[in-house]
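Morning!

This is the sequence you dropped in the shared folder:
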Amino acid sequence: MLRFSAAAESWPIAGSFTISRGSKIAADVVVATLSDGTNTGRGECVPYPRYEETVPQVLAAFEAASARIEQGFAHGDVASLVAPHAARNALDCALWDLDAKRSGKPVWQLAGLPEPKPAVTAYTLSLGTPQEMGEAAARAASRPLLKLKLGREGDAERLRQIRANAPTSRLIVDANEGWTPENLGEMLEACASVGVELVEQPLAAGNDEALRHISRAVAVCADESAHGLEGLDGLVGKYDAINIKLDKTGGLTGAIALAKAAQERNLRIMVGCMLATSLAMAPAMLLSPFADVIDLDGPLLLKADRDPGIRFDGSLMYPPPSALWG
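The structure's back. Tokens below.
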């Protein structure tokens, strides 16, 4: 019989983190722990209010399901045990970690995936004034790939100042649903003019049909519009890529299935994250062989990460140590 527990944790951010919807000063996560008395597995999730999920809701779901969880379950049972997708993620990843500890084999091998290699992650610049973001770009100009949080008035000027201060960095943009069908063409042109390679979720998830009818020089990636397999076909023709996050897919198991299905539909793949610690990045990193873009910089934005955590050399991230996960 298994022993199960779940706990909320708050990890302070280095400064604050702002997107078009607002700001935060801490990464609030839930950690699920499974033990068989000898081996222990952990998984971390980020309940996200944008998807109507909160930390108390996830903890309550785990409390209600704990007796059934402790009777034992398989990865295919996770969705029937807890409803919030974030809770499913933590539980699924905790089971993968426990599977690895029990078998003595890494998760990538158990899941039939390629062995993860060191990979470059995007580094995110929080939304601020054009001057603030230009200064942040100057400080990060040595990083090869910058992700720019946009979605408010003045974005074109933000782009100009960022490019002037980071002339050699590759750029991707995340508007977090902050643009409109009316300014979409103008903003995509502004992105193209400074060499932006990819724009995430420019329009609100429920108001993105304009993407079917606009020609663009910059690829567009679904984030808030992309969750699991059930909605994938509806994205084809609107988006060029999808951002796969384990908190949206309900865990690594669902993320692997979504990545394979996206490839079959010729959609490019970004592997992304919520703001969280290395424990949440570790399973996501196993998707890196599928990915055109890796955005797993959550630990770089915190005041402190777990110990042990994933090792970062600038923007180069290394596979997680087994003592952390997997």
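Headline: The two ends are 21 Å apart (CA to CA).

More detail when I'm at my desk.
O.
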